[in-house]
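Recap quiz, item 2
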Amino acid sequence: MTVENDPVTLIREKALWMRRTAFRMVHKAQLGHPGGDFSAIDVMATLYFGVMNYDPSRPDWAERDRFIMSKGHATGALYTALCAAGYYPEDWLETYMQPKSLLNGHPNRNYLPGIETNTGPLGHGFPVALGIAIAGQISGADYRTFVLTGDGEQQEGSNWEAAMTAGHRKLENLTLIIDRNRLQQGQGTEQTAGLDPLDDKYRAFGFHVEMVDGHDVAALLGLLSASPKGRGKPLCIIANTVKGKGVSFMENQASWHHGVPNAEQFAKAMEELV
Amino acid sequence: MAAPAATKEGLRDCRDAWAATIVDLAANDPRIVAVVNDSIGSSKLGGFQKQFPDRLVNVGIAEQCMVGVGAGLANGGKIPFVSAASCFLTGRSLEQVKADIAYAGFNVKLVGQSSGVAYGELGATHHSIEDFAWLRPLTQITVIVPADAWETAEAVKWAAGHEGPVYLRLSRMPVPDLAVENRVFRPGKAETLRAGSDVTLIANGTISHIALAASDLLAAEGINARVLNMATLNPLDEEAVLAAAEETGAIVTAEEASIRGGLGGAVAELTSAHRPVPVERVGFPGFLPTGSVEWLFNEYGLTPEGIATRAKLSLQRSGK
């Protein structure tokens, strides 16, 4: 295998481009949620460039794999992923959060191809992903459904409603990925309304649970690309991540949840993101 | 003046019409699925479950999840009918209705059962009199409030064929079918139950029958009331409302709902902006005490006499 066609190398390259591009968008708009973008980007690059089956020229293709960005504020990650996946040209990213932009602060499926549902209020993506997976179960379709939630987002009760039914229906075509960066908007999750032991909780709800370093692309690729057939359970991947991953002064800082860079910070981040 | 519309003999439960129609539709369209919150019995979906066990999705007592699942099923190519007591369907999962259904624009049909004060004695938690006000600003959702079993069946059929979100607000009060000649279901259009030029009574749901009876009382006093069955609340038939204001000069609205933000609110908003006339709103003022449906209707004037009295008040206010 050459470097050019090594999937891990490709995913890392895409992730680097996504981080640099997302931070440029946030810097220009002086709005956004870069900390959560950066914690999620390696998972998303793995999905879009190593795992999922989709065709950007046919966003409504019935058999496509679905990705639901439940933590809808992380549009820096989502919009760059969809752009890199070929859903729309790069210059669209320049309009991020400008008046009447299709790149709204939170994703809208009616604005952009490739977005599966509108999110923003937390706790919405998992039930919708559950419905997509049930539709596939009813139809006997082969597509897979992936939903990414924040970890603080797990405090929303609607997730646990969805978890109950997903476990009950043994939906092996459904994968829940939790971006476990351990920080919510104001402080740590364990200082707010603690989530641990999150793995035991999902096991108790009937999931097969895997814990993984959410920035270890090779490990993510192995877990996410494994066939779900015969597992007989939905999969929950707890991706242990670092909020602000990739930029030294942003890492593990809750203030970068929706912090935006000044010119100096932007320049420093660009120096680090290489 | 046209003769008052008579009603056919025989009372029919709108829920039976819903249940029979959804089974018929599902038999011909594999995309149709039902989603419930442990509400199979109250939604009268036992027959559906028996015939299409794989297409009945019961998420348990979890309304937020239920509505989100509806959106997801639509994403997966299904035509979901999400059926639950309207108080929980709209209240508990209002943000899902807003974000996942209206804003996302999924082809989901929300079916509110036992609406209004059907659960009279159970109290305000179980009354669904706020749903009109909650859903009216969500202009992407077509809101239909059928008056009888015939209109319920027609509305369900129409909703299945319509690409877009719909809220069907069903009654559990048995009523006869309105006797309208050559009746055609026209979503978004008021149905004239009686012609008249002195005052207009605008109602929806099974209250249309009471408005019609009120027009009989008014006719006996020489007052010719126009009666409109406004089955579609969203979008409102503005042409019919403004014509009523222009041609009759006084309006009474009557609904099994709060007088704030529902049919009465919609009519008052429209007329005050474009053709101000007295608008008397018959309905409920807020949280209600315990009582049977009949008691509550009597107490709050949702009766032929109550509506007729308000019609005469509107005439006084109009200076006629």
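The first strand of chain B starts at residue 32 and ends at 36.
The mean pLDDT of chain B is 96.
End of item.
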